[in-house]
Design goal:
Elements (H helix, E strand, L loop, with lengths): L1 E5 L7 E5 L9 E11 L1 H10 L9 E8 L12 E5 L8 E5 L3 E3 L6 H4 L2 H13 L8 E4 L5 H12 L3 E5 L3 H11 L3 E3 L8 E6 L3 H9 L1 E9 L25 E3 L9 H14 L6 E6 L3 H9 L6 E5 L2
Parallel strand pairs: 8-9, 8-11, 9-10, 11-12, 12-13, 14-15
Antiparallel strand pairs: 1-2, 3-4, 3-6, 3-15, 4-5, 5-7
This protein binds NADP nicotinamide-adenine-dinucleotide phosphate (NAP).
């Protein structure tokens, strides 16, 4: 099969080449991939950390070529959306069936391919807060792939949404169109909130935690700045009326129960209830171009590669 292979001498660290077809385990379906979306974590860290010749990629949409031998998961010919630690940037991938969602017939695979990491992480982060109907939610790094899903899903869940971006002049209108009630340039400017989806980390996490009300939860999803989190003395016990606050973390690739989330998100995209915010789309041999834009912060939203 053809695949994007790690090659440090190539632009973006990837080149299109040949790799052996994957051999699915009994609990894995073989999927013919038609589209993949790129995520900050994999292009910033995983390419760098993987040996030359590796086939990487977390998100893929496609069609089941061969159902899992153990009878689990969708049947041959089913359009699917998939998540795995590697193998998405290839014509074929083998995926554990508990990480496969089904997709309505006729849905755009490019749009659907944005669901696994960005959509499912945003959904999982909001679930960690408990019910958000009538609550206030702050999203930091809101212009990114995950942030744009978090803003839409928080609004859909009935929250009052504050979005934080480094550039409100450029992105404020777009974030309000997605459902944000307010847009701020720093979490410190936010009113008190009941929940935070933090995609940035470092000083922004510390500032966002300071905005949490009693009983609130900050879900630390992203760590874009590469900075540590230095809390001033008192920040974690705070005033007596704000003792009960939670900081939660998760790593999506270690989460269970993903298939229903992937299916639900794919349905919302197919119906138009969610906008995947695809801001770059092209053939997979243009991957280096998309990676440069993503890492250079000139691409806000999702980058989609069409496979094959
Ligand atoms: N825990 C998990 O399982 C999990 C799952 C998904 C994502 N993540 C993490 O969440 C973070 C966001 O992922 P993503 O895919 O949404 O990223 P993305 O699409 O690249 O978006 C990141 C956004 O954050 C803002 N930002 C602020 N400070 C930044 C900085 N120093 N460097 C780069 N961007 C900065 C940028 O917006 P402005 O330019 O408008 O400020 C950018 O639009 C990443 O750290 C990723 O690894 C973790």
């Amino acid at each position: 099969m053809r695949a994007l292979l790690v090659d440090r001498s190539a632009p973006g660290g990837l080149r299109l080449g040949q790799a052996p077809d994957p051999a699915p385990a009994p609990n894995q379906a073989l999927v013919r991939v038609t589209a993949t979306s790129l995520n900050y974590g994999e292009v910033r860290h995983i390419i760098e950390e993987s040996p030359d010749g590796s086939v990487l990629g977390w998100d893929a949409a496609g069609v089941v070529e061969r159902a899992a031998a153990d009878g689990s998961g969708p049947a041959e010919g089913t359009p699917v959306v998939t998540l795995a630690p590697d193998g998405a940037w290839a014509e074929l991938r083998a995926v554990d069936t508990h990480r496969i969602g089904t997709v309505p017939q006729g849905a755009d695979p490019g749009a659907i391919s944005t669901v696994p990491v960005a959509g499912a992480s945003a959904l999982r982060a909001l679930h960690r807060m408990g019910p958000i109907l009538g609550k206030r939610v702050l999203v930091t790094g809101a212009t990114g792939g995950t942030g744009r899903y978090a803003v839409q899903l928080a609004r859909m869940g009935g929250a009052h949404v504050t979005a934080s971006t480094g550039n409100p002049a450029a992105h404020g209108d777009g974030l309000r169109a997605l459902g944000a009630h307010e847009v701020v340039s720093d979490p410190a400017e936010s009113a008190t909130v009941d929940g935070v989806v933090d995609l940035v980390g470092g000083g922004q996490l510390v500032a966002a935690h300071d905005r949490l009300a009693e009983g609130g939860t900050l879900v630390a999803v992203g760590h874009l700045t590469g900075e540590g989190e230095n809390f001033p003395f008192g920040a974690l016990f705070g005033a007596p009326e704000r003792h009960d606050r939670t900081i939660a973390t998760f790593f999506l690739l270690r989460c269970t129960g993903l298939a229903p989330d992937l299916t639900w998100l794919a349905e919302r995209i197919a119906t138009g209830d969610l906008d995947p915010q695809v801001s770059w789309r092209g053939a997979w041999d243009r991957a280096p171009e998309a990676i440069e834009a993503l890492l250079g912060r000139t691409l806000h939203g999702k980058a989609v590669l069409e496979i094959g």
